[in-house]
Design a protein that fits this description.
With about 400 residues, this protein is of the alpha/beta class. It has two domains: about 190 residues, Aspartate Aminotransferase, domain 2, CATH 3.40.640.10; about 130 residues, Aspartate Aminotransferase, domain 1 (Alpha-Beta Complex). It contains 16 helices and twelve strands. It has a seven-stranded mixed sheet with strand order 1-7-6-5-4-2-3, with helices on both faces. A five-stranded mixed sheet has the order 8-9-12-11-10. This is L-methionine gamma-lyase. InterPro entries: Cys/Met-Metab_PyrdxlP-dep_enz, Cys_met_metab_PP, L-Met_gamma_lys, PyrdxlP-dep_Trfase, PyrdxlP-dep_Trfase_major, PyrdxlP-dep_Trfase_small. It catalyses: L-methionine + H2O = methanethiol + 2-oxobutanoate + NH4(+).
Length: about 400
């Protein structure tokens, strides 16, 4: 790299996550951005207040829609994802509902992939239809089924990749091309990959969502959601989904926690990914394990797609034992270091049983149809020394 190109290139992901949008000199030299614990903001003049309410002046009015600590967070995540702007909300589900209720009207249609986080699946299949919004399901790993599901009323398509809980990977560019040809916009949940490993907007998606509770927070101590996309679209989400419909404001302190998490996100995701690869190899080679689903394995069905659109494979693994659900439950109870808990992306390694926990909202028939078997376990590989994780899993497996 020449000196000129080095000067002109965009700073790296970690550099932007640590520095973007903040100058200590403007805040009395404070290295860490301050937490603005205020619900309302004073106007210098009555005219200034009127201009703010009319959108003729930039600034802050009331804490439900915007806060200076929140602004720094939103600028940083928008930059990392390659979007024009972002919105922070109170949870991942608030990010989903706030977006959908801002962009969809009664009579519109949304097409979703059939494998989603359990509460997201319930929201789409049980809540949205109550408000006159039609919801269709398709298998997005088979583009022809998406093509068949799209119609003149389809406004959005929505999916996760990798998907929760079985980690199936969907070709973002292929879905975007089909959806856009039908006049629909593409919304992708990028929680599992984070912008460190995958940036869906670069592959044609229009909106990216995160449960920032997971990897972006990274410490299991915050609930939050993020939406990234075009400024015009997200202004609708801020004014409608956040301000009027949900009121799901993210507190300034939780914005501070996410800013803390962003600073180490690249380092943590690299460690999660490298450890998960070793754990996946162990599981794949163990006699008690019937199947392993991890995008980094050559045996993974969508391995080539994952290599094409991801720069790494993440910290989530799904697997099933020969003894099915009974043996899976027994394994969970014999683990000592690995913690039995839902959620993911924390420093701790977590294991859970989707059929009876995060995806219990699916009927047994739906789980079978959508590849969520009763024996499936989901493992979120943490930041402990990987040899300790491997030892705990191997000991528990050998004892079955």
């Amino acid at each position: 790299m020449t000196e000129t190109s080095r000067r002109n290139r965009q700073p790296g992901l970690s550099t932007r996550a640590i520095h973007l949008g903040y100058d200590p000199a403007t805040e009395n030299g404070a290295l860490t951005p301050p937490i603005y614990m205020t619900s309302t903001y004073a106007f210098e003049t009555a005219e200034q207040g009127s201009e703010l309410f009319r959108g003729e002046r930039k600034g802050y009015i009331y804490g439900r829609t915007k806060n200076p600590t929140q602004t720094i967070l939103e600028e940083r995540i928008a930059s990392l994802e390659g979007g024009e702007t972002a919105i922070a909300l109170g949870s991942g589900m608030a990010a989903i509902s706030g977006t959908m209720l801002s962009l969809l009207d009664a009579g519109d249609e949304v097409v979703i992939d059939h494998t989603l986080y359990g509460n997201a699946y319930a929201y789409f299949t049980q809540a949205l239809p109550r408000w006159g919004i039609s919801v269709k399901l398709a298998d997005f790993t088979r583009p022809e089924t998406l093509e068949a599901a799209l119609g003149p009323k389809t406004k959005l398509v929505y999916f996760e990749t990798p998907a929760n809980p079985n980690l199936r990977v969907i070709d973002i560019a292929a879905v975007a091309a089909i959806a856009h040809a039908h006049g629909a916009e593409v919304v992708v949940d990028n929680t599992f990959a984070t912008p460190i490993l995958q940036r869906p907007l670069e592959h044609g998606a229009d909106i990216v969502l995160h449960s920032a509770t997971k990897y972006i927070g990274g410490h299991g101590d915050v609930l939050a959601g993020l939406v990234v996309g075009r400024a015009e679209t997200l202004q609708k989400v801020r004014q409608t989904g956040l301000r009027w419909v949900t009121g799901a404001t993210l507190s300034p302190f939780n914005c501070f926690l996410l800013l803390r998490g962003l600073k180490t996100l690249e380092l943590r995701v690299e460690r999660h990914s490298s450890s998960a690869m070793k754990v996946a190899r162990l599981l794949e080679g163990h006699a008690k394990v019937a199947s392993v689903s991890y995008p980094g394995l050559e045996s993974f069905a969508e391995h080539e797609i994952a290599k094409r659109q991801m720069s790494g494979f993440g910290g989530l693994i799904s697997f099933e034992l020969d003894g099915g659900m009974a043996e899976g439950m027994a394994l969970m109870n014999r683990l000592e270091l690995v913690t039995r808990a839902v959620s993911l992306g924390d420093a701790e390694t977590l294991i859970q049983h989707p059929a009876s926990m995060t995806h219990a909202i699916y009927s047994a028939e739906e789980r079978e149809k959508h590849g969520i078997s009763d024996g499936l376990l989901r493992l979120s590989v943490g930041l402990e020394n990987v040899d300790d994780i491997l030892d705990d899993l191997e000991r528990a497996l050998d004892s079955l």
